[in-house]
Design a protein that fits this description.
This protein is α/β, with parallel strands linked by helices. It has a single domain, classed as SGNH hydrolase (Rossmann fold), CATH 3.40.50.1110. Helices cover 39% and strands 13% of the residues. The protein is built from 7 helices and 5 strands. It has helices spanning 11-22, 24-27, 59-62, 64-67, 91-109, 131-146, 178-204, and strands at 3-9, 37-43, 72-76, 113-117, 152-155. A 5-stranded parallel sheet has the order 2-1-3-4-5, sandwiched between helices. The two termini are 21 Å apart.
Length: 218
Protein backbone atom coordinates (compact mmCIF):
# COMPACT_ATOMS: atom_id res chain seq x y z
CA UNK A 1 0.00 0.00 0.00
CA UNK A 2 1.77 3.14 -1.27
CA UNK A 3 0.53 6.46 0.11
CA UNK A 4 0.45 9.19 -2.54
CA UNK A 5 0.92 12.67 -1.08
CA UNK A 6 0.83 16.15 -2.59
CA UNK A 7 2.48 19.06 -0.76
CA UNK A 8 0.50 22.01 -2.10
CA UNK A 9 0.60 25.74 -1.46
CA UNK A 10 2.61 28.95 -1.82
CA UNK A 11 6.34 29.60 -2.22
CA UNK A 12 7.29 27.68 0.94
CA UNK A 13 6.30 24.53 -0.96
CA UNK A 14 8.33 25.48 -4.02
CA UNK A 15 11.34 26.23 -1.82
CA UNK A 16 10.89 22.97 0.08
CA UNK A 17 10.94 21.06 -3.20
CA UNK A 18 14.17 22.83 -4.18
CA UNK A 19 15.69 22.19 -0.74
CA UNK A 20 14.89 18.47 -0.96
CA UNK A 21 16.36 18.25 -4.48
CA UNK A 22 19.56 20.05 -3.48
CA UNK A 23 19.96 17.83 -0.40
CA UNK A 24 18.68 14.66 -2.02
CA UNK A 25 20.92 12.26 -0.08
CA UNK A 26 18.93 13.10 3.05
CA UNK A 27 15.76 14.69 1.74
CA UNK A 28 14.77 12.91 -1.47
CA UNK A 29 11.00 12.34 -1.22
CA UNK A 30 11.10 14.48 1.98
CA UNK A 31 13.27 11.78 3.54
CA UNK A 32 10.52 9.15 3.29
CA UNK A 33 10.72 5.61 1.89
CA UNK A 34 9.56 5.87 -1.71
CA UNK A 35 8.30 2.28 -1.70
CA UNK A 36 5.78 3.25 0.99
CA UNK A 37 5.12 6.96 0.38
CA UNK A 38 5.40 8.98 -2.82
CA UNK A 39 5.53 12.75 -2.42
CA UNK A 40 4.87 15.35 -5.12
CA UNK A 41 5.07 19.14 -4.81
CA UNK A 42 3.07 21.98 -6.30
CA UNK A 43 4.12 25.42 -5.08
CA UNK A 44 2.93 28.79 -6.39
CA UNK A 45 5.14 31.80 -5.72
CA UNK A 46 3.00 34.50 -4.14
CA UNK A 47 0.06 32.10 -4.01
CA UNK A 48 -3.04 33.25 -2.14
CA UNK A 49 -6.25 31.72 -0.87
CA UNK A 50 -8.33 34.72 -1.94
CA UNK A 51 -9.43 35.03 -5.57
CA UNK A 52 -6.94 36.47 -8.03
CA UNK A 53 -4.37 35.61 -10.67
CA UNK A 54 -2.27 33.64 -8.17
CA UNK A 55 -5.07 32.06 -6.20
CA UNK A 56 -4.24 28.52 -5.16
CA UNK A 57 -7.92 27.70 -5.71
CA UNK A 58 -7.76 28.48 -9.45
CA UNK A 59 -8.48 25.56 -11.76
CA UNK A 60 -5.04 26.01 -13.33
CA UNK A 61 -3.55 25.10 -9.94
CA UNK A 62 -5.98 22.43 -8.73
CA UNK A 63 -5.87 20.66 -12.12
CA UNK A 64 -2.94 18.63 -10.79
CA UNK A 65 -5.52 16.84 -8.65
CA UNK A 66 -7.50 15.95 -11.77
CA UNK A 67 -4.53 14.40 -13.54
CA UNK A 68 -3.16 12.62 -10.46
CA UNK A 69 -4.84 10.80 -7.59
CA UNK A 70 -3.61 11.63 -4.07
CA UNK A 71 -4.48 9.96 -0.79
CA UNK A 72 -3.29 12.94 1.23
CA UNK A 73 -2.67 16.64 0.60
CA UNK A 74 -0.45 18.76 2.85
CA UNK A 75 -1.51 22.41 2.55
CA UNK A 76 0.75 25.38 3.29
CA UNK A 77 -1.21 28.49 2.45
CA UNK A 78 -2.62 31.75 3.77
CA UNK A 79 0.45 33.79 4.68
CA UNK A 80 0.37 35.97 1.56
CA UNK A 81 -3.28 36.84 2.14
CA UNK A 82 -2.27 38.89 5.19
CA UNK A 83 0.61 40.72 3.50
CA UNK A 84 0.67 44.47 2.83
CA UNK A 85 -1.17 44.02 -0.49
CA UNK A 86 -4.01 42.21 1.27
CA UNK A 87 -3.79 43.76 4.74
CA UNK A 88 -7.57 44.22 4.96
CA UNK A 89 -8.11 40.44 4.88
CA UNK A 90 -10.07 39.28 7.92
CA UNK A 91 -8.08 36.50 9.66
CA UNK A 92 -11.19 34.60 10.79
CA UNK A 93 -12.57 34.61 7.25
CA UNK A 94 -9.19 33.46 5.94
CA UNK A 95 -9.20 30.54 8.38
CA UNK A 96 -12.69 29.56 7.22
CA UNK A 97 -11.64 29.83 3.56
CA UNK A 98 -8.69 27.48 4.18
CA UNK A 99 -10.99 25.08 6.02
CA UNK A 100 -13.58 25.17 3.22
CA UNK A 101 -10.86 24.62 0.59
CA UNK A 102 -9.72 21.55 2.53
CA UNK A 103 -13.26 20.18 2.45
CA UNK A 104 -13.42 20.98 -1.27
CA UNK A 105 -10.37 18.76 -1.84
CA UNK A 106 -11.97 16.00 0.23
CA UNK A 107 -15.34 16.02 -1.50
CA UNK A 108 -14.38 17.01 -5.05
CA UNK A 109 -11.12 15.13 -5.56
CA UNK A 110 -11.62 12.17 -3.20
CA UNK A 111 -8.53 13.09 -1.17
CA UNK A 112 -8.81 10.91 1.93
CA UNK A 113 -6.99 13.21 4.34
CA UNK A 114 -5.87 16.84 4.34
CA UNK A 115 -3.16 18.28 6.57
CA UNK A 116 -3.22 22.05 7.07
CA UNK A 117 0.21 23.33 7.99
CA UNK A 118 0.40 26.04 10.64
CA UNK A 119 0.87 29.49 9.10
CA UNK A 120 4.27 30.89 9.98
CA UNK A 121 4.98 34.38 11.23
CA UNK A 122 7.49 36.75 9.63
CA UNK A 123 10.36 38.95 10.70
CA UNK A 124 9.07 42.03 12.49
CA UNK A 125 11.37 44.12 10.29
CA UNK A 126 9.54 43.22 7.11
CA UNK A 127 5.84 42.64 7.70
CA UNK A 128 2.76 44.85 8.08
CA UNK A 129 1.81 46.04 11.56
CA UNK A 130 -0.21 43.36 13.30
CA UNK A 131 0.68 40.68 10.73
CA UNK A 132 1.99 38.14 13.22
CA UNK A 133 -0.95 38.73 15.56
CA UNK A 134 -3.30 37.92 12.67
CA UNK A 135 -1.29 34.79 11.91
CA UNK A 136 -1.95 33.55 15.44
CA UNK A 137 -5.67 34.28 15.05
CA UNK A 138 -5.78 32.26 11.82
CA UNK A 139 -3.91 29.33 13.35
CA UNK A 140 -6.11 29.21 16.43
CA UNK A 141 -9.28 29.46 14.34
CA UNK A 142 -8.20 26.63 12.03
CA UNK A 143 -7.31 24.50 15.04
CA UNK A 144 -10.83 25.05 16.42
CA UNK A 145 -12.55 24.40 13.08
CA UNK A 146 -10.71 21.11 12.53
CA UNK A 147 -10.77 19.77 16.10
CA UNK A 148 -13.71 17.42 15.47
CA UNK A 149 -13.13 16.72 11.77
CA UNK A 150 -11.62 13.30 11.10
CA UNK A 151 -10.46 13.94 7.53
CA UNK A 152 -8.55 17.18 8.31
CA UNK A 153 -5.56 17.63 10.62
CA UNK A 154 -4.16 20.98 11.72
CA UNK A 155 -0.41 20.48 11.92
CA UNK A 156 1.72 22.55 14.29
CA UNK A 157 5.27 23.06 13.02
CA UNK A 158 7.27 22.47 16.19
CA UNK A 159 9.61 25.31 17.04
CA UNK A 160 7.75 27.75 14.79
CA UNK A 161 4.76 28.86 16.87
CA UNK A 162 6.74 31.78 18.22
CA UNK A 163 8.81 31.84 15.05
CA UNK A 164 12.33 32.95 16.14
CA UNK A 165 14.05 35.53 13.98
CA UNK A 166 16.96 33.09 13.51
CA UNK A 167 14.77 30.95 11.23
CA UNK A 168 13.93 33.80 8.86
CA UNK A 169 16.04 34.70 5.83
CA UNK A 170 17.86 37.98 6.37
CA UNK A 171 17.34 39.08 2.76
CA UNK A 172 13.55 39.27 2.74
CA UNK A 173 12.27 38.56 6.25
CA UNK A 174 9.65 36.22 4.79
CA UNK A 175 11.21 32.93 3.75
CA UNK A 176 13.22 30.46 5.80
CA UNK A 177 16.99 30.27 5.81
CA UNK A 178 18.87 26.96 5.63
CA UNK A 179 18.36 26.16 9.30
CA UNK A 180 14.70 27.05 9.16
CA UNK A 181 14.12 25.05 5.98
CA UNK A 182 15.73 21.99 7.54
CA UNK A 183 13.38 22.30 10.53
CA UNK A 184 10.45 22.81 8.16
CA UNK A 185 11.36 19.71 6.15
CA UNK A 186 11.52 17.66 9.36
CA UNK A 187 8.07 18.91 10.30
CA UNK A 188 6.50 18.07 6.93
CA UNK A 189 8.24 14.67 7.00
CA UNK A 190 6.74 13.96 10.43
CA UNK A 191 3.25 15.06 9.41
CA UNK A 192 3.24 12.74 6.40
CA UNK A 193 4.77 9.82 8.32
CA UNK A 194 2.11 10.07 11.03
CA UNK A 195 -0.63 10.24 8.40
CA UNK A 196 0.74 7.05 6.83
CA UNK A 197 0.40 5.31 10.21
CA UNK A 198 -3.19 6.52 10.42
CA UNK A 199 -3.90 5.12 6.95
CA UNK A 200 -2.28 1.81 7.86
CA UNK A 201 -4.29 1.44 11.05
CA UNK A 202 -7.47 2.30 9.17
CA UNK A 203 -6.61 -0.25 6.47
CA UNK A 204 -5.91 -2.98 9.02
CA UNK A 205 -9.21 -2.29 10.74
CA UNK A 206 -10.96 -2.67 7.35
CA UNK A 207 -11.83 1.01 7.28
CA UNK A 208 -14.37 0.48 10.03
CA UNK A 209 -12.82 2.34 12.92
CA UNK A 210 -12.43 5.97 13.87
CA UNK A 211 -9.24 7.77 12.92
CA UNK A 212 -6.72 7.67 15.77
CA UNK A 213 -5.61 11.08 16.94
CA UNK A 214 -2.36 12.43 15.54
CA UNK A 215 -1.12 13.00 19.10
CA UNK A 216 -1.41 9.29 19.93
CA UNK A 217 0.88 8.41 17.03
CA UNK A 218 3.70 10.85 17.77
Amino acid sequence: MVLKVLVFGHSYVRRLEKFCAENYLQWLNVGLDGTEIQVDFHGIGGGTVCNGAKSIKNHSQTSILNSNYYDCVFLQMGGNDLSSKNKSTDPCKLAKDIFHFSNYLFYSFSVKHIIIGQLLSRSKLNCPTGYNDKIHVVNNKIRALTSDVKHITFWTHRGFWQNPESLICDKDGVHLNGSGMSKYAISVHSAIAITQKMFLLTFLSKLGKHWPSSESLK
